[in-house]
C-alpha cells in the first residue's frame, strides 16, 4: 500500500503535469522539424524521476496519465477503411495504443531499476542503474513509435521504404531524447541525490525527530 499513499499519488499527478508541459514546449520548439511528428526535449525526465523515486508501478501510472492527458490535446488517427484485412478492423485502435497510450507509459519501466539504484553502494553503480533504466524506458518508447510506423505509416525517405524508414525516422529524435534525458538524470543524482531517494530523507527526518524527543525526555 506504500506505493499508493496519498503523497505518492500526488507526486504522480504533479510529475505527469510537468511532463505534459514539457511535451507541449518541446513540440512547439520542434514544430515542423519532423514531418511526421516527433521532438527532442525533456518530457521523459519527470517519468524517470517518479520511477526512481517511487518504483515501477508509480512510474507506469505516471506515464499512462501523461499519455492520456496528452491525448486530450488532440491526436491523429488513421482511417481504417483505407486498409485491408485485420488492419481495417483493429488498425485505428492499435495505432492509438502504440503512438499515444503506450508511448509514454512504457517509459515507466525505468522503475524496474529503482531498487537497485537505491541499494547501490557507490555513485558509479548508481549511474549504471540510471543508464540501464533510462535506456530501457526510452528504447521502449522508441519501439512503440517505430512499430506504429511499420504497421500504419508507410513512408519513404532517402529512397528507403518500409520498416527501415520507421526505425530511421523515429530514431532521429528518440536517440537524442534518450541521451539528453539520461544525462539530466545523472546530473540530478550527482547534484541532488536525495531527490531520487526520498526514503533516505524520511529516515533523516525520523532520526531527527527521535533525537529531539530523547533530548526533551532527558531535560
Structure description:
With about 220 residues, the protein is mainly alpha-helical. It has a single domain (about 1-219), classed as Arp2/3 complex 21 kDa subunit ARPC3, CATH 1.10.1760.20. Helix content is about 70%, strand content about 0%. It contains 8 helices and 2 strands; from the N terminus they run H-H-H-H-H-H-E-E-H-H. A two-stranded antiparallel sheet has the order 1-2. Strand 1 (about 155) and strand 2 form a beta hairpin. It is globular, with a radius of gyration of 20 Å. The two termini are about 40 Å apart.
Mean of all residue-level pLDDT scores: 83
Radius of gyration, CA atoms, in whole angstroms: 20 Å
Shape: globular
Helical content band: over 70%
Gist of the model:
The chain is an all-alpha fold and 219 residues long. It has eight helices and two strands; from the N terminus they run ααααααββαα.
Please specify the SSE layout and strand pairing.
Layout: H1 6-29, H2 45-54, H3 56-72, H4 86-105, H5 114-119, H6 123-152, E1 156-157, E2 160-161, H7 163-191, H8 198-218
Antiparallel strand pairs: 1-2
Helix pairs in contact: 1-2, 1-3, 2-3, 3-4, 4-6, 6-7
Task: Describe this protein with a few key phrases.
219 residues; mainly alpha; Arp2/3 complex 21 kDa subunit ARPC3; two-stranded antiparallel sheet; 8 helices; 2 strands; 72% helix; 2% strand; globular
Amino acid at each position: 500500500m506504500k506505493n499508493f499513499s496519498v503523497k505518492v499519488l500526488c507526486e504522480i499527478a504533479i510529475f505527469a503535469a510537468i511532463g505534459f508541459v514539457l511535451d507541449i514546449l518541446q513540440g512547439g520548439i520542434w514544430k515542423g522539424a519532423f514531418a511526421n511528428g516527433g521532438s527532442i526535449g525533456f518530457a521523459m525526465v519527470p517519468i524517470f524521476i517518479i520511477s526512481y523515486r517511487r518504483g515501477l508501478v508509480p512510474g507506469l501510472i505516471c506515464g499512462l496519465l501523461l499519455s492520456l492527458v496528452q491525448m486530450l490535446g488532440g491526436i491523429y488517427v488513421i482511417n481504417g477503411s483505407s486498409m485491408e484485412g485485420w488492419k481495417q478492423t483493429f488498425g485505428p485502435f492499435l495505432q492509438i495504443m502504440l503512438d499515444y497510450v503506450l508511448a509514454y507509459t512504457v517509459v515507466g519501466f525505468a522503475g524496474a531499476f529503482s531498487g537497485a539504484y537505491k541499494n547501490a553502494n557507490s555513485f558509479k553503480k548508481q549511474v549504471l542503474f540510471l543508464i540501464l533504466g533510462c535506456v530501457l524506458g526510452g528504447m521502449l518508447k522508441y519501439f512503440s513509435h517505430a512499430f506504429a510506423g511499420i504497421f500504419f505509416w508507410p513512408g519513404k525517405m532517402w529512397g528507403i521504404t518500409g520498416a527501415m524508414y520507421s526505425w530511421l525516422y523515429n530514431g532521429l529524435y528518440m536517440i537524442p531524447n534518450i541521451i539528453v534525458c539520461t544525462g539530466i538524470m545523472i546530473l540530478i543524482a550527482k547534484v541532488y541525490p536525495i531527490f531520487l531517494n526520498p526514503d533516505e530523507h524520511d529516515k533523516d527526518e525520523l532520526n531527527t525527530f527521535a533525537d529531539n524527543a530523547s533530548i526533551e525526555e532527558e531535560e
